[in-house]
Amino acid sequence: MKITIELPGPVGLTFEGDVDEFERFSGFVSELPELIGEIGPASVGELGDGGAGDGGGDDENGSSPLDPATLQARFSRVGASTDIERVTVIAQAAVENGREGADFALADKIYIALALAKPARWKVTFGNARTRGYLQNVGRGVYKPTVPGENYARGLGGPPKRRPAQRTVAATASAPALESGDGA
Questions:
Q1: Of 114, 51, 60, 65, nearest to 93 (Cα)?
Q2: Reduced to 3 states, what is the DSSP secondary structure of residue 177?
Q3: pLDDT digits (tens, 9 = 90+) for 93-151
């Protein structure tokens, strides 16, 4: 017998075995809520610090800036609705947490923890944030926010307002007239 349970996000469960094993398995699964209640929810916290930084940088309410709940609240507060804006906020949180900046792996882990749809290629997303002026590459695929990016991620100013290009019409009366003549 084979049973697969898929939950929203990256969580899924597959069982393959006979009836006796299934009874043991279902007994274990039925005890999970009690076990989780005793242990408490797992804190994703710094999402794999990778040895970078000191793990400090707790924000005003005592949680890590890279905690998924903290990041989700910050996304909402600053209005980060695009991937470019979100990676800017993630990079600022990484700096506040004592890291050099954010990389593709950190952004991937945060998107998984928050059950957000990931962009097709992180390199393009970070590159577009760099083109927009929010991030700068500090080497080895690590990006940190620029001053405008930091201001945006901290909620001190939104993205720059872009005006559509204005078409100018040349005034024909003021333009010098071309004279046809001897070609000299």
A1: 65
A2: coil
A3: 999 989 999 999 999 999 998 888 999 999 999 999 999 999 999 988 899 999 999 99
The token duo for 94 is 């990484």
Residue 129 CA to its chain's centroid (Å): 11
CA distance 182 to 184: 6
In one letter, which amino acid is 184? Answer: A
Task: Please report, for residues 13, 14, 21, 145, 172, the alpha-carbon distance to residue 4 in angstroms, rounded to integers and kept in the order given.
Answer: 6, 4, 15, 42, 74
pLDDT of residue 50 exceeding 60: no
b/e burial code for range 41-68 (CB count within 10 A of at least 16 → b): eeebebbebeebbeeebebeeebbbbbb
Q: Which of 169, 145, 173 is nearest to 159 (CA)?
A: 145
Handedness of CA 129, 74, 93, 140 (dihedral sign): negative
User: What does the block give as tokens for 67?
Assistant: 């905690």
Enter the pTM of the model. 0.57
